[in-house]
Amino acid sequence: MNTKVNLAGIELKNPVMTASGTFGSGEEYSEMFDLGYLGAVVTKGVANVAWPGNPTPRIAETYGGMLNAIGLQNPGMEVFAQRDIPFLKKYDTKIIVNVCGKTTEDYLAVVERLSEEPVDMLEINISCPNVKEGGIAFGQDPKAVEAITREVKKYAKQPVIMKLSPNVTDIGVMAKAAEAGGADVISLINTLTGMKIDINRRTFAVANKTGGLSGPAIKPIAVRMVYQAANAVKIPVIGMGGIMDADDAIEFILAGATAVSVGTVNFRNPYAAEEVVKGIEAYMERYGVKDIKELIGAVR
Questions:
Q1: Is 128 in the active site?
Q2: Which residues, including other chains, have CB under 8 Å from residue 87's CB and lie 6 or more apart?
Q3: Domain enclosing residue 226, as ranges
Q4: Were both Cys, which of 14, 97, 218, 262 would link to 39 (CB 3.0–4.6 Å)?
């Protein structure tokens, strides 16, 4: 049984990775299971300088999921390079660094710095607001998606994954824009913008007013968007959004995802990513699937 998948020349032992922002850099979870069991670990977003994030409260539970408005709090690329990369190098897994920024220059500073580091791929989070364009997220304008992808590719030594926002009218257009800019892979979906109001305190449940909705409530939207994106481009797609178990992961793979990211469920079940790997293997055995590539995009 072959569970290996290829993302732009990087071979993963299986298609399961973690979703950025839900796994830190893996240190806490390494106490639960061997990170080497995963195809890749995707780190929390890393910026060129330390970001304090948004004011608290920053998380709220919702039906079938959660809202978060963490604001990409992170210690900056120097601390990350000195502390987190050496830790992850101890494990037999691929390292994918999620990169965030407020301007194109911010992204390029991190990408250039990471070109010297032993990491396998870069995932560019373009849901960050483009400050110079009045706070509109890069990922909501196809011209901006293509432009920032092209700039990042000029500086990146590793293959580039562009992480797409679902808060758009046509995900296929955004996927094509990333491909046109030279993206090696795309990943989707990032969180959907949502809101919750505390009726007893008569105020917003998170201080930021709005937050990113994740968890099983968004999965049907995510599967639909992954299907549309996979059919719009020729580059590989990483699918995510509400994966709770192996059945959910297989759904994304059948829709066209070459790999999947396990996110919010990690907070509820720290063994989830490992269980998804085992569950995919059990599914393949049950249905006599010899190579996982037989499943990728099998539903048309």
A1: yes
A2: 25, 26, 27
A3: 5-54+72-192+214-294
A4: 14
